[in-house]
Structures are given as C-alpha cells and as structure tokens.
Amino acid sequence: MCICAHISVCVLHVHTTIYDQENFQGKRLEFTSACQNIMECGVDNIRSLKVECGAWAGYEHSSFCGQQFVLERGEYPHWESWSGSNAYHIERMMSFRPICSANHKESKMVLFEKENFMGRQWEVNDDYPSLQAMGWGNNEIGSMQVQSGAWVCYQFPGYRGYQYIMECDRHGGEYKHYREWGSHAQSFQVQSLRRIQQ
Amino acid sequence: MCICAHISVCVLHVHTTIYDQENFQGKRLEFTSACQNIMECGVDNIRSLKVECGAWAGYEHSSFCGQQFVLERGEYPHWESWSGSNAYHIERMMSFRPICSANHKESKMVLFEKENFMGRQWEVNDDYPSLQAMGWGNNEIGSMQVQSGAWVCYQFPGYRGYQYIMECDRHGGEYKHYREWGSHAQSFQVQSLRRIQQ
User: Fold this and answer.
1) What CATH number belongs to A108-195?
2) In this protein, which residues make up the domain named Beta/gamma crystallin 'Greek key' (chains A, B) (predicted)?
3) Can you list the positions of beta strands (E) in chain A?
4) What is the pLDDT of residues B76-122, one digit of tens each?
5) Is A108-195 the same fold as A15-98?
6) Domain segments of chain B: what residues?
7) Tens of pLDDT, residue by residue, chain A (198 residues)
C-alpha cells in the first residue's frame, strides 16, 4: 500500500538541489516540483541534498512509497542526516514531493486513542517532543484526523524513529489505521509529533 | 573537555528506569537522580530505558562526557531510539542526569553569528526545525547565551545529527565556542534547535 495517490496541486514556491554522492558531490539536479522516480533523471540514488525553499517529503522508493523523510530548509550531507534513527538502514531515497503546510499557528489535528476515530480524543495545535509528558496515556495513537496543515509523527520521543507524514490535503486528512500512515508503518506506536513548517 | 562540572542542584521530580538489554529486558535499575557511572551499579551499558518523569541528559561516557542525548518521557527500546542519526555509531550510554528546564513558554536564548558573542544576534523563544527557514543566514551558530530554560541544538534540520544540550544553570548559560558545547562537538554547524520540556 502506498500513500502516493495524487501530486499536490497547491502552488508552492519550493526549490531543492539533489546530488548522487555524499557531501554535495557528483551529479547535481535542481527541482521546483515533485520527482516520482529519480532514476528517470539518470541518477541511481540521492546521497545528499540542499533544500533551498519549502518543505518536502522524501521517500525510500519511487512513486512516493516506503519510508518517509521530512526535509526542511537546510543542508543534508548524507542519509543519516535526514533519516529517523532506525535500525532499518536502507539508505535509499528515490522520490520526493513538496509538502503543502498551513500557517504554522493554524495547524490543527485530532488524536484518537483507538482506530477508526474511536476512544479518547485530544486536539493538538503545537509541537510535542513527548506526548506522554503532555498527558497522553500510552505510547500509541489509534487514528488521526488532520484538520489544518501538515504534521509529522515519530515512533519515539524527541522526534526519533520512523516518520509518518500526515496532511490535511491527502486522504481528506483522515488516517484511520496505521496501515494508512505509509507502507513502512508496522504498529500504532507514536511518541512525539510536530507541525511541518514551510 | 567535559561539560560535567557539577550535579544539578535544582530539586526535580524525576524518575527513569534503565535496562542492560534491548527492549526492556535484562537487569533493571530505577533512578530518581543523576548516575555518574552506570558500571558502578553493576551494569556494563544501558541498552533500553523508560523515562517515567522529567527530562534527562544521557552521555556516551561516564562523568557526563562524550555524545549527548536528550531523553524525555516515553519508551526507548534501543540505542537507535534516542541517538541523533549519526554516522558515528558507538552505541554506549554510561551516565545520565536530570535536566532543569524552565517553564516552556519562558525559555529564552540568544544566538550569535560569531564566537564570543560577536556578530549578528537573534533572540529565540520557540522551537525551530529549520533555522534557515526562519531567516538565519547559514548553517552555523558561533555562540549562544541561554537566558532561561534548557535547549537542545542539532547539526541538521528536523532535529537530526549530534545533539548539544544548552542550559541556563550551567556555564552561567554561556557557550562562547563549539568547544564548550560538549566533547563531541567538532564544528559550529547547527541547523535546528528546540526547548526541552519537563
């Protein structure tokens, strides 16, 4: 299962430069919109990149599938600099696309204890490096409804582990079960989350 | 050089449980204050942990030296779940201590373009997953002055890479050069930073 579906239609001022070697070396390509398969551009893998403008989602596989990586403005010299500290080190990024996020102050999401929007619920509009520290009862979230903006959820506290990108303008903002969080999601475990900024 | 110096004197309600095997297995020990050398407790390394209360700083070596890791409330089943996505995988945590942070809304720090509090400056009181996206000119910070609370700075955007813990009640809150950020700091590179919450 992929979270691919459609390319975002919101018009964004975005710009990123990718390199096929670490430390901004080797073949270099510039992008101002999504790339569904980097191999079609004559590059076998992305090994470093600079985000000049906007927020992007990077993916392990082509067509926006597999492990997800949030990419915000700045310099990423190697795979370790954008990955989420996982035991699962595949070191591949084959596709990427801009993320359409809301005004930072207006981002809003509802968390549900159980899948299918059941159980205890909690509306969030801020960044949470530890959900448990802020009162959430356990280390799992059953389902999520994004009402505004784009968010990234993480397996572990302090924004570590697998990343799950949740957007208002995808799936109608509805993520009923971890199977809808991305093809790499294997459990309901989420211990930190934050808003994505442009 | 160590950032050790003294054990924090602020009285905190803190609690953490460490295990000498991954996934909360093996020998188990509970702590409500700092531990300067886990080997003195009969454990050769910390391989998983649960923070039940408070925020903590974990260290690669004994006596609060080496690579730093912020630990907030939640469950950490293996080294990868608290490390900062570094190429440098030593997989050791030998000491830890509570962090005394301010009321989250009152945290304040001044960033300086150059070392010794020189050059352009910028007062921050929020979390910044990308400093460049918020207007900071490059991928480095020359020096920092913590006026309130505790902060964590990261090499790469999105809270990745080496972690540097900066505290109001250590060094008088003054970090004049990267050599004062911790024994593992090798450059001025900082691309994201955030407040530490209890």
Assistant:
1) 2.60.20.10
2) 14-53, 54-100, 107-148
3) 15-21, 25-31, 48-53, 56-61, 65-71, 74-76, 95-98, 108-114, 118-124, 143-148, 150-156, 160-167, 174-175, 192-195
4) 999 999 987 666 778 999 999 999 887 778 899 999 999 999 999 99
5) yes
6) 15-98, 108-195
7) 344 344 444 557 899 999 999 999 999 999 999 999 999 999 999 999 999 999 999 999 999 999 999 999 999 999 999 987 666 778 899 999 999 887 778 899 999 999 999 999 999 999 999 999 999 989 999 999 999 999 999 999 999 999 999 999 888 999 999 999 988 899 999 999 999 987
Residue A43 tokens read as 């590059």
Task: Indicate yes or no: CB of B157 within 8 angstroms of CB of A87.
Answer: no
CATH code for the part of the protein at A15-98:
2.60.20.10
The residues of B whose Cβ lies within 8 A of any Cβ of A are 51, 55, 70-76, 78, 80-87, 127, 129-134, 139, 155-161, 191-192, 194, 196-198
pTM more than 0.90: yes
Whether B73 sits inside 8 A of A132 (CB atoms) is yes
State the pairing for strand pair A160-167/A118-124: unpaired
Nearest of B191, B40, B84 to residue A72 by alpha carbon: B191
Nearest-CA distance from A154 to chain B in Å?
10
